[in-house]
Every structure is written in C-alpha cells, then in structure tokens.
Amino acid sequence: MLNIALIAHDRKKDEMVNFITAYEHVFEGHKLYATGTTGTRIMENTKLNIHRFMSGPLGGDQQIGAMVAENEMDFIIFLRDPLMAQPHEPDIIALLRLCDVQGIPCATNIATAELLTRALDRGDFAWRELVHKYKPGIE
C-alpha cells in the first residue's frame, strides 16, 4: 500500500475528478491524501476514502510537503494551473523542491499522471516498499 497525494488547482479540479474516477480501481488499494476541496470532490464522485488536509493556500501543500520531507509520501499527482497566478506559489515551489530532494515522483499534468498511474497499476512502484522497509529511525 502506497501513500499517494492528490492536489488540483481550481481550474483543474474537474480534470482530477475525471481522472481519479477513471482509475478508481488502481487507487482503491492505496492510502490517499488530498488538499481540502480536491479531496472532497473526489470522495463525492468515487467510493475512495481520502485523508483530507487543509486547502492548499491555507497550508495543505505544506502538510503534504511535511510527509514528503519525512519520505512518507510515495507519489503525488499535482494538477497545476500554469496560466493562473497562485497566492501560495512559494508553497507550491517548496513542495516540488522537496519531491526532487527526496526522489518522489510528482506528476504536474494529466499526461504524466497517466504514466505514473499506469506504472502503479503494473506494480512498478514496488521499490517504494523497500524505502519504507529500510527507512532508518530517527536518532
């Protein structure tokens, strides 16, 4: 079971809901996290159970970022709206930076989300289970 975060900017929420609905069978065996409204919208349209954090601008991106920093997130689908300025842009950049630092796959558009989801369905993320198995404790 992997930890997967789902984040979508306002103009990408419908796209996220449609995508997750199409791949509900892939995501149902995993622990799902999402920022506020995105998580609510997905749960309203699927049978998936999602742990919801705050809305992105209110700290949800940072809450997910904390899990990434602790290497507790296995992959993220973050459908960003590159044509709209975001008031919490520094939080977004920080989250993407943490993904790069920790080597966490992060899809920022639907094409990459499709590739990562198909890889998840094939079992290509089994290496993440080893990361968790051999994660050193805090000393």
TrEMBL record:
Residue ranges occupied by any MGS-like domain in the UniProt entry: 1-139
Keywords (A to Z) from UniProt: Lyase
GO cellular component terms attached to this protein's record: cytosol
Enzyme Commission designation: 4.2.3.3
Active site: 61 (proton donor/acceptor)
Catalytic activity reported: dihydroxyacetone phosphate = methylglyoxal + phosphate
Pfam family, one: MGS
SMART domains: MGS
Described function: Catalyzes the formation of methylglyoxal from dihydroxyacetone phosphate.
NCBIfam families found in the cross-reference section: MGSA, PRK05234.1
Protein name, as recorded: Methylglyoxal synthase
Organism of origin: Paenibacillus pectinilyticus
Lineage: Bacteria, Bacillati, Bacillota, Bacilli, Bacillales
